[in-house]
Amino acid sequence: MIKTDILIIGAGPVGLFTVFEAGLMKLKCHLIDAIPQVGGQLSEIYPKKPIYDIPGFPSILAGELVHNLMEQAAPFKPTFTLGERAETIKKQEDGSFIVTTSEGTKHQAPVVIIAGGLGSFEPRKPLIDSLASFEKRGVEYMVREPETFLGKKIFISGGGDSALDWAIYFAEHNNSKVGLIHRSESFRAHKDSLEKVKQLEKENKIELFTLAEVVGLRGQNDLESIEIKQKGKENSWFDTDCWLPLFGLSPKLGPIADWGLDIEKNAIKVDHTLDYQTTVPGIFAVGDVNTYPGKLKLILCGFHEATLAVQTAYKIIHPEKRFTLKYTTVQGIQGFDE
Ligand SMILES: Cc1cc2nc3c(=O)[nH]c(=O)nc-3n(C[C@H](O)[C@H](O)[C@H](O)COP(=O)(O)OP(=O)(O)OC[C@H]3O[C@@H](n4cnc5c(N)ncnc54)[C@H](O)[C@@H]3O)c2cc1C
To answer: What is the pTM of this model?
Structure first.
């Protein structure tokens, strides 16, 4: 049994910052995450994308922000259960909670803070018979390490920001032309990105296929070619090393949806004005996973929510004590010995 003061479900940016704020109040945290790395969406979806709305950082790469959050949390010695999904929660007679993961690891804490973001997210997959046999063999739904794609022939499908951003990135960083395939003639992506794609098409660095879709895949073991069906043309096969169908992610709250909390549109309802506590006392929800009137799914909003949540968490854990908030400039950072 892993015991801690605050058990955080989700090691995304908001979960990581919760460790820091809790640490300032001398509360120890343990984090559980279903994926084997920390950073949530920032590490999983867009580690190399710059973020422009983190206060004090005019621009910072998502991966760098995760690194900094880990560094900021380090004095408070957080511990982790990674690569395991929190499955069940049970309230004990003493008011504490026991959370058990998919691997059977048990955790006990008087306070649980859910920072589960979009939950466990699944890519939207196209309906092609042989798709599964080429996954990780040329078909990828996310770009984690762009370097691994360099020097390869790439086709990308999709009309949103992710598809266009990566098409632009590879057109600018690769020697071979990038194929961009989209079902419609209109794009959901940002206008600037579309203008850039058109420019790169003129420069012969992107080949644009509109009113088109991939309908077949071929290869001995790894993907070798894709079949494109385009309105008004015969279907054609194109040689390629990889195909990235970037149709977005469909968020699934997963097991948390069955924890008896008040759920609205795939998010947990919280008491927004006070402390982001859920309808179950002792369980809080911060970051993308919660909802309340005026909610914005932004990292900085999650940071604020976590800061308020730990104030009430302190009162639950130490009902006999009073905590006086002092600026870090006054009291400094007093980390934990172990
Ligand atoms: C392409 C893109 C660009 C973005 N750009 C910006 C931007 O510029 N500025 C900005 O402020 N925001 C941006 N966002 C939004 C931002 O990424 C989110 O607001 C942020 O990630 C929310 O952080 P979080 O910690 O709440 O959740 P997440 O980052 O989603 O992390 C949640 C973690 O919880 C884990 N989890 C979920 N359920 C369980 C479970 N049952 N058991 C164990 N672990 C679980 C997940 O695996 C995940 O790692 C962007 C998002 C995307 C997709």
So the answer is: 0.73
